[in-house]
Write a structure and sequence with these properties.
12 strands; five-stranded parallel β-sheet; alpha/beta; 16% strand
Length: 383
């Protein structure tokens, strides 16, 4: 019998309330951790109903819109209370800011789930240098208090070593997990059926990009690439799902390039509809230009039986290359994306079939696989 490990998990926000890769990871970890004997108690910034929605596994310590001083004070109180009220073998932090005010309260091993460089990501989105510096100081303080760190890819392990000075021997790689059961129902569905359900055309090649609409996601490069590709393949349709601050600029780009028949910005897609959207596409594309530690949507697409084309940025090649090396384009930017899409449409790039895609996702990125790695790191931290 597996010895239970009792953990306090400090997250960012609650996924059903606020989307994002980190929040999705945290949400699913809470749901599946018990399968490997990891007992969880979670803390997030979110609405009061979080506890009911999570069947008591997660508690909100403050509203996610609370002012920063209130948020920090509430996080500190919540961590202190949780550690006093319940035996805890270790604390796992998924977001440095919420662990920072309670560092002096944590008297058990601290494991960092490193989802990305918070400060650097803020700078990439145009935040000022002073705020970025403060964020980096907070990150460094939390990471240096850690017993071990978990990263999603070799790329993020290098980043943690080079930018934060963490000893590589303290870092374990555990690629993100997905709930493959979410995609089982659509994985064998004919694409035409999925398209009809969504109201998408059934007689055109469709490429899907599911992304937050921010600069580093490279969507402007992908749209520009489509402008090159349609000269040869005028029926190509790019569907961009997501919302964010770059939406108006991206739509202006589509208008200026006269691509309204070839590019659709469809906005936010509810989480329950995402498997259907993945299945409806012939190909998904992740055109990131910087700071992609894992690429959850890439794995989700493959779990739905749809191949994924990616740029060679961060952890993306580590996901795709073992299955289909040709689906890792030669670089970020318009030219490589246009070359990759044209190669696929011309038939020069052979994509794996739906069975191979599903098998790859289930074998390497299902939660049972990921959680075994996480449990191993937790055990190392508590020895």
């Amino acid at each position: 019998m597996t010895t239970p490990l009792r953990t306090l998990q400090i997250g960012l926000e609650w996924f059903p309330e606020h989307g994002g890769g980190l929040d999705r990871y945290f949400h699913d970890l809470m749901r599946h951790a018990d399968s490997v004997g990891i007992k969880v108690q979670g803390l997030v910034a979110g609405r009061a109903s979080v506890e009911d929605e999570s069947s008591g596994l997660v508690t909100s310590f403050t509203d996610r819109t609370a002012a920063l001083p209130r948020r920090l004070a509430a996080a500190r109180r919540a961590v202190r209370h949780a550690l006093r009220e319940r035996h805890t073998d270790l604390v796992a932090s998924h977001f440095a800011l919420h662990a920072f005010p309670a560092l002096d309260q944590i008297n058990v091993p601290l494991v960092i789930h490193f989802h990305g460089p918070w400060a650097v990501e803020s700078m990439a989105q145009g935040q000022g240098s002073a705020a970025t510096m403060v964020k980096q100081l907070i990150e460094r303080s939390v990471y240096r208090h850690s017993t071990r760190c978990i990263v999603l890819s070799n790329a993020f392990k290098r980043l943690l070593v080079e930018q934060y000075g963490i000893d590589p021997d303290r870092i374990d790689i555990s690629p993100g997990g997905i709930d493959t059961d979410r995609f089982a129902a659509v994985a064998t569905m004919p694409r035409s059926q999925a398209r009809e359900a969504l109201g998408w055309p059934v007689d055109r090649p469709i490429v899907l990009a599911v992304r937050r609409l921010v600069r580093r996601m490279g969507l402007d490069h992908l749209i520009a690439a489509v402008a090159h590709v349609v000269a040869r393949h005028p029926d190509l349709l790019l569907v961009v799902a997501g919302r964010g601050p770059e939406q108006a600029a991206l739509q202006a780009q589509v208008d200026a390039l006269e691509l309204n028949d070839n590019v659709r910005l469809i906005g936010f897609v509810p989480d329950d509809d995402l498997p259907l959207a993945y299945r409806a596409a012939d190909l998904t594309v992740t055109p990131t230009v910087a700071l992609e530690g894992f690429g959850l949507i890439t794995v989700e697409a493959m779990a739905a039986g749809t191949p994924a084309m990616v740029t060679p940025v961060g952890g993306l090649p580590e996901i795709v290359q073992p299955l289909a090396p040709d689906l890792v384009v030669s670089g970020p930017g318009t030219g490589p994306l246009a070359e990759g899409l044209t190669g696929w449409l011309d038939g020069r790039i052979i994509v794996p079939d739906e069975v191979a895609c599903r098998r790859h996702a289930e074998t390497h990125f299902s939660w049972p696989v990921s959680l075994q790695r996480i449990r191993t790191t937790y055990e190392r931290a508590t020895r």
